[in-house]
Specification:
single chain, alpha+beta, Jelly Rolls, Arc Repressor Mutant, subunit A, 2 domains, 6-stranded antiparallel sheet, 5-stranded mixed sheet, about 45% helix, globular
């Protein structure tokens, strides 16, 4: 089985790509011809069916997708097949990186429970108006990706991504079968949710598992085990991803001196900051900022 990140997809001809956090696909023909076997996607995948009938194999289960239906795959879902069942099967696919889940936009009331529901009920019936709405979001995002990148481009794109996610969550409320009672969520779910909330609040400035474990009143070993079970990666990996994402954002989209960024992120010295960035990105902060 192959694990694929959004970064891996950036050079594929059938993918429109944005800054490591988003990809768009609307050519099902090219996608259907890919022969990768089972693939684990490190992204949230949204597949909107515009017409016809198709089948997607996700996490070992076959899901039939038809017009006015949407399939949502949570991060680390495994896809082994996507095929047409009718000639007119057309979809639009939006992929969103796992880093977005660390954003505070996902930590508001009841959102975790809704994401939990979507993880276990990936196919949703949506209205004709919803299909048009998601299609417009897709087209608008595609237009922004391929258009002029203004000084506020990053903020605009992330706002669009957040809008898409909230529209998805709103769709869940339209189903009478949705039950968001608290007993749906296990202690592990709550601990993982609270860990993600702390990540979002700290914005990468706290980099030790022990610090998070202390705030959550658990041992570092237990926290790491729960995080690993929930998402397939270690707590330290998620912490470092959050930290480097904040650093990348400041290096690419602000004029702050590197020393100021180091101090703002709570590093004890500029040298320590440089070593951390080079380990995560492969180049020094200065070279990364220069695009080398």
């Amino acid at each position: 089985m192959k694990r694929i990140s959004i970064e891996y997809l950036k050079n594929e001809d059938y993918v429109d790509y944005f800054d490591g956090d988003l990809f768009l696909i609307d050519d099902i023909e090219n996608l259907s011809n890919i022969r990768l076997g089972a693939v684990e996607m490190e992204a949230i995948i949204v597949i909107i069916c515009l017409s016809g009938v198709g089948q997607i194999t996700m996490n070992g289960s076959n899901f039939q997708l038809k017009r006015n239906q949407l399939l949502l795959g949570m991060p680390h879902s495994i896809y082994s097949n996507i095929m047409r069942l009718t000639d007119n099967f057309k979809v639009k696919i939006i992929g969103i990186s796992t880093r977005v889940l660390n954003s505070s936009v996902f930590m508001t009331k009841n959102i975790w429970k809704k994401l939990y529901y979507l993880q276990n009920n990936p196919v949703l019936d949506i209205s004709e108006n919803d299909v048009k709405l998601f299609s417009h979001y897709y087209d608008l995002t595609d237009l922004k990706i391929n258009g002029e990148h203004t000084p506020f481009y990053q903020a605009i794109m992330m706002s669009l991504v957040n809008c898409v996610i909230f529209e998805l969550l709103a769709v869940t409320n339209q189903s009478d079968t949705v039950d968001f009672d608290k007993d749906q969520v296990t202690q592990g779910d709550e601990l993982y949710r609270n860990f993600l909330q702390l990540l979002a609040e700290n914005e990468g400035r706290v980099r030790y598992v022990q610090d998070y474990a202390d705030k959550l009143y658990v041992t570092p070993k237990y926290l790491s085990a729960v995080v690993k079970q929930m998402c397939g990666r270690t707590a330290l990996t998620l912490i470092h991803e959050t930290t480097i994402h904040a650093i990348v954002r400041m290096l690419k989209y602000t004029d702050k001196p590197i020393k100021e960024i180091s101090d703002e992120m709570g590093f004890p010295s500029l040298s320590f900051f440089g070593k951390f960035v080079k380990k995560q990105l492969g180049v020094s902060p200065k070279k990364f900022r220069m695009g080398k």
